[in-house]
Amino acid sequence: MKNPKPITSLKYLHTDDRRMDERKFRSYCTKRKLDEKAIQTHIEAIRDYESYLKREHKKKDFSQSTLGNFQDYIAHLMKNERNTIDNFAALIRYANAIKKRDAVAYLFGFIEGYGALKKLYETIGRTIGENGRNEIFDGINLPPLGTDPKDKPRIVKKVMERLEATLDKEALREIMSSGLDVGPREWYLPMRKKFLKAKSIDDFLAGKHDEAIKSLEKHLKENSMFFAQEVDKEVIDFVRNNPEVMGGVRRGNIIYETKIPYQTKKYLQEEDETLKRYYACHCGWVREAIRSGLEISPNFCYCSAGYHKRPWDIIFDQPVKVEVLETVLDGGLVCRFAIHIPKQVSETPT
After folding, report:
1. How far is CA 203 from the centre of its chain?
2. Radius of gyration of the chain (CA)
3. φ and ψ of 115, to 5 deg
4. How would you classify the pairing of strands 254-258 and 249-251?
5. pLDDT in tens, 81-130
6. From CA 107, how far away is CA 104, in angstroms rounded?
7. pTM to 2 decimals?
8. Can you tell me whether residue 251 is helix, strand or coil?
């Protein structure tokens, strides 16, 4: 795919359009330690969107946007090869800054795991060779950033069917859990430092859970969102009463972790099991399959297992084994994982 063009070349960019709340947005970005160049690029992106919104939809500003307006703008960015992660980040951050929460959740759906399928493509090529990789992806184009989440599950279904026909279960799961949607090593080094200072693995896990609760309480106090979801007392109580969520519980040589639902507030209020599974799922590649009824192999959830595995690889300073115990793709109401503690690791880090 061609490199997206810079936002400053957009024909709708008018720097004299000052509808956006620049002071509030600048303060929001500064608190999140964005540098001046990134902040200015974000400001230009929001001005561009508001100019587009005024011209195409006769709307006054960002706050009046409907989800349909965002959908049209994303299509416009894709058409003009300007569908960059920075432009999506600008929209999401501004929506957060002005507390337009429906927009935050909607826009997050377009960027979640956006590079995972490309990384899977590359990993398969390194593992089984380019010829085998090309057979698996024959006729399948890697969808560009901004692809409608409703269009993604059928692509994943086809890839998984071909992978399962080519590889044995263990090889497939090893590829899927290899870190398709994880951050660089540096992100997890602070966790290793805390682990080395902890009295034991259990002490480290308790501290990790306590920090998560404090973070959620901070979001509640500041009336801010935790990634793409609202936080209320019920959400915090759910996490507090479930130490496997955002923490972990050790039993013997296994650490059990349960993923916090993607939309916990809606998840807790929902009685329909299908929608409950939908609100639990974090994966933008398959979430819509739950609601539509499209069946996708639960082996795909080893990608999510890899997300949980990655911190422990760094914490223990060696690769760990991970298992998927329960997944919403297989009818479960949560996604739950088992992290196997390496034999060389003592229960007491020091």
Report:
1. 28
2. 21
3. -95, 0
4. antiparallel
5. 999 999 999 999 999 999 999 999 999 999 999 999 999 999 999 999 99
6. 5
7. 0.90
8. strand
